[in-house]
């Protein structure tokens, strides 16, 4: 929640100035939000060394950015001095923006690579009406960042329309000189917009240098269609797993004129050596005798050795050189131990085929996460698995559970995911949770999963084959939006290449016949599992019910038999009490059968499935004949699944509670 801060005295580092028409030199008339705070020396600190933090500072009053007569934008100029102080224990991350925004309320904006400005849903939305200058210290491929130390001009999105490595052009010889944004040294920035020329310039320089005559970035852009008449100006910043303190040391702004100069002589006290909050807090030894200090040190060392030995016995954390490139996805064991209250049974959410899942709250940021502990006794494939975490950790889709990172030990791997408050879908289908999902909710869940699979198969840079699609791996957020989770079995492959494997993985009833025979997963085997999933959600029963008659054991065969009798809607979940839309219900059931076709070539692609569900295409007219062509397949193909005896077959049971 934002809170107003009215400071009676001018901040020491700002040049004292009277009120300026259509502009200001910051003098306390501003608002701080998130983790932003005053330093004892008077300047802003937007974020500190807390992980996954967001901080903002706004000039408290809106400014008129457009001419009332013709609606065109006006010129503006701003200059500010900033410093990024790197925590000694971390790599730099993530950065800061100067922004022009229609509101001070940026509810829902995310930390990490979103810089406290947007989130994965609204990034790129023209209705944002935001123009920003990003000072970015982490290279993120999602936004096509050029490197991990750059400046960019952003319009409604964190994918910059123009960017350049951080630096400046020397006035004496025109030579480009680099600037390290995370050096801890104060850096001055100028952002100037010439409305008649529709020219936006961004310039940087160390504070001991005069303003370069040649800007770092110069972009021809008319911001009139982007901004509204009244806009707010300010800063946003964020940290992720990588942290640094983001400071604003001085700031002035002017509409239709040049921003007032800052009195840089007032900045001499800032040395770039500011310590984070958690440092310098140990005054306990002050006033103690030398003997007392020695005894205290000996006792402390002894206690630390005992605790270290105990913790080492539980978990020996491993970090090898090759993992450096995945630093943004690496959590420390200490963080996760604290987040889960020592992996307390009170935080236990469930247990799956791969390990136990705990609820956690990341220290410092209060972000809720799900933490999964996986045992492993071999280094075989660990490098590839961590590389996969690095890949899937970059996936950003509203219907995918984000893999936030990992921690690796000698005999254990810990994965960190987004926390889903409503748990897994199978809880609502099979457990007595007191809530029955209505048809509209179920139909949307099916479409959500189809969107996620289309993204994985056809829209991401690599083909991601999930390999374990089922109701217990579909997680529901607070608004019952479905998100496909558990990438523990996922594998990446380049487009148009087969994925070779010698290990059949999946869950009974979702495994395509050819996967059981060959052990080779493909996007089509995911489609088969999705077909079983559609029938599961619509019928409210598992794909294989072993405690029932042979006729009803296999869900797909049971639904198919009712279809042949012209009574396919009789298979719908009786808990729905016949409250469904007949056209949608019939579509889902028939689509489930089509996706469960016994021959891979007979199944649609997920993009086609999505078109059927959205009503953008209709099922084939000869669907009956198409599906009937595989009649009689049931016994032989089901035997291929139920009686497959290879020792490499892995079958996972539904997870308890959350299904991760």
UniProtKB/TrEMBL annotation:
Q: What is its main location?
A: membrane
Q: Which residues bind ATP?
A: 372
Q: What class of enzyme is it?
A: transferase
Q: Does the keyword Cell membrane apply?
A: yes
Ranges annotated as spanning the membrane? 284-308
Task: Spell out the reaction equation it catalyses.
Answer: L-seryl-[protein] + ATP = O-phospho-L-seryl-[protein] + ADP + H(+); L-threonyl-[protein] + ATP = O-phospho-L-threonyl-[protein] + ADP + H(+)
Which GO biological process entries does UniProt record here?
defense response to bacterium; defense response to oomycetes
Instruction: Indicate whether Cell membrane appears among the record's keywords.
Output: yes
> Could you give one GO CC term from the UniProt record?
plasma membrane
Q: Name one Pfam family in it.
A: Lectin_legB
According to its UniProt record, where is this protein located? Answer: Cell membrane; Membrane
What GO molecular function annotation could you give as one example from this UniProt entry?
A: carbohydrate binding
Q: What is this protein called?
A: non-specific serine/threonine protein kinase
| Organism, scientific name | Salix viminalis
Q: What lineage is this protein's organism placed in?
A: Eukaryota, Viridiplantae, Streptophyta, Embryophyta, Tracheophyta
